[in-house]
Automatic annotation (TrEMBL):
Its EC number is 2.3.3.16. The lineage of its organism: Bacteria, Pseudomonadati, Pseudomonadota, Gammaproteobacteria, Chromatiales. It comes from Nitrosococcus watsoni (strain C-113). GO terms for molecular function: citrate synthase activity. SUPFAM superfamilies: Citrate synthase (SSF48256). Pathway: Carbohydrate metabolism; tricarboxylic acid cycle; isocitrate from oxaloacetate: step 1/2. It is an enzyme of class 2 (transferase). It holds the Pfam family Citrate_synt. One of its GO terms (biological process) is tricarboxylic acid cycle. Transmembrane segments: none annotated. This is citrate synthase (unknown stereospecificity).
Length: 266
């Protein structure tokens, strides 16, 4: 931005094609009448339309709802983002703040949004290089040598990802399991299993591949995933808020190995 002219240009004025509310009359949502043209669209369809500007078909809506249901809705309070929401509940915070905090910490380095965006970016990069004539095995080796990891492969706790089978089953039912990006993920897994790395695919790779095959860009995929953990976060908050205050995973002081300064008298 150079100088105040851009501020004056937008004072009391915002040009947008995203939508507008006309009080007592109608709502425009990305150029379409919400009450007339979009009234039969499921919420997932509306979300995807808001993100991409494209109205998904019924099979795509089922796929993207399935990814949320099968892959990200675990109501286990031990999981890092669910734990934050449960802590909010045990301190009697509000559901809105609990959900906001849980989703905010979902942008983690090992779990959540960052691995997701790295996985789909990796698939786009690899496919582009393959189309330019590169060899896939060499690309995988270079990726490992440079970054020490392959996004979407390997898992910290267990080698098997229990979400792969049910999501792949849904994709097969919808005839989405044979797209070029899905095929690419399994080819990469074969290379990693045959080599010394022994890395199995995790759900980040398969979900990213399915989204890429449906035409989502990396940024669109990220925006679609922003709220996906909410289905598991809210039950953890509700569980904690219904129990005595402050009782969520307490830790007694004698379990803490303190190595700092001795107790001092002021």
């Amino acid at each position: 931005m150079q100088g105040p002219k851009y501020l004056f240009k937008n004072e009391d004025h915002w040009v947008t094609n995203m939508g507008a509310w006309f009080p007592g009359e109608r709502v425009v949502f990305r150029g379409k009448d919400l009450f007339q043209e979009l009234k039969d669209l499921p919420w997932m369809g509306l979300l995807l339309y808001g993100i991409t500007g494209r109205i998904p078909n019924g099979k795509q809506i089922r796929l993207f709802e399935g990814i949320w249901t099968l892959c990200s809705s675990y109501p286990d309070p031990r999981l890092w983002n669910n734990r934050v929401a449960a802590l909010a509940g045990t301190t009697r915070s509000t559901a809105a703040l609990a959900l906001s905090a849980g989703n905010a910490v979902s942008e983690a380095s090992i779990y959540g949004r960052r691995p997701d965006i790295r996985a789909i970016d990796f698939l786009f990069r690899i496919k582009g290089q393959l189309e330019a004539g590169a060899e896939i095995e060499e690309l995988v080796r270079k990726e490992l040598k440079k970054y020490k990891i392959i996004p979407g492969y390997g898992r910290p706790i267990t080698r098997k990802d229990e979400r792969i089978e049910p999501l792949l089953s849904l994709a097969e039912e919808l005839n989405f399991s044979h797209g070029p990006y899905v095929k690419l993920t399994f080819t990469i897994e074969e290379i990693l299993l045959q080599g010394r790395w022994r890395l199995y695919m995790n759900i980040a790779a398969l979900a990213a591949a399915l989204a890429a095959d449906q035409g989502l860009s990396p940024h669109e995929y990220y925006h679609y995933l922003v709220l996906c953990f909410s289905g598991g976060i809210l039950p953890c908050y509700l569980d904690a808020v219904r129990k005595p205050e402050g009782t969520f995973f307490p830790l007694s002081c004698d379990r803490i190995q303190y190595e700092g300064e001795r107790r001092r008298v002021w």
